[in-house]
Amino acid sequence: MRRSFLLVIVLVAPLTAQPTYKLGVQENLVPAAEITLKGKMLSRSAVKNDPGFNLQYHFYKDGKPLESINARAKAAVEVPMKDSGLFAVVLEVFYPAYKGGPGPRGQFRAVSNILAYKVAGDKIEAVNSVPALVINCGKGMGKDQDTKALKGYAYKLVQGTAFDGWPASSGKTHAWTDPKLVRFEIAVPAEKLGTLRLHFVDGDNSKRLQKVTVPGKAAVDVASFGPPGKTLELPFTSSETSTGKIEVTIQNANPSGSAAISTIEFVSPSP
User: Which residues, including other chains, have CB under 8 Å from residue 205's CB and lie 6 or more apart?
Assistant: First the structure.
């Protein structure tokens, strides 16, 4: 008996590597929220450009970090009251870091205003933070720009020139300016909690457009800042100022204009 065999050939498509997707906070996203205090209750707004990672209220006393409370599950919490003193709180979001080794897998970064408050017995009241560093960039062609610098604070202009010649109607007649980049460094006491305020004025109505970049922060586009100008506030936790130095780059994005900044402040609940 003859036996016949059926040969079946199965064509298998070659395996292709599946694309990998890196989870994280996109570089162009700028998470932002506002926290407010009413009585003993602290509440947060919805987080704009929320990446969806862990969210926490981080409390400080006299500038030193204290406890953290989960803010993802609770939009409002009662302020912890253990003793009297000067406190501050900021909303932070977790930024994952994807790297090998035993090091940390990310860090929390500030995404809200830093709210300072004073506790005296059962009484809680919000207080204003105090500028520890004030620079009126280029005022008096640089001769009058050193306005205020407490101990431990300083600055260095790396790229740019002093200018003072815009009309008084522009609000600020002075600036540091450069056709391409204005770069400077701010020195603060290491692990200092505070807010960097950058005030921009387009004093000659050049329709300036510029990108502000700070390491560890998302780049921010600043436009339409003719008189009276526009202020950008960047909060910093103690971990974000661990080196005691903040580097800022302002890049001109309008070929017919120039990069410019008029005032710099660092404001802290505990100068």
Answer: 226
What are 97's two structure tokens? 């870091």
DSSP string, 126-138: EE--EEEEEEETT
Domain CATH code at residue 189: 2.60.120.430
- Quick one: 51 and 151 in the same domain? no
Query: Buried b vs exposed e over 25-36: b needs ≥16 C-beta within 10 Å?
Result: beeeebbbbebe
Confidence category of residue 21, pLDDT binned at 50, 70, 90: very low
Instruction: For residues 122 and 227, state if they share a domain.
Output: no
Handedness of CA 201, 204, 208, 212 (dihedral sign): negative
Whether the upstream peptide bond of residue 51 has omega within 30° of 0, thus cis, is: no
Q: What pLDDT score does 48 carry?
A: 93
Tell me if 140 is assigned to some domain: yes
- Round the CA-based radius of gyration of the chain to a whole number and report it: 25
pTM confidence score:
0.84
Helix, strand, coil percentages (3-state) for the chain, rounded to 5, are 5, 50, 50
pLDDT reported for residue 28: 62
Q: Does the pLDDT at position 231 exceed 70?
A: yes
Q: How many CB atoms lie within 10 A of CB 155?
A: 20
Tokens representing 265 are 């402040």
47 lies in which domain range?
35-127
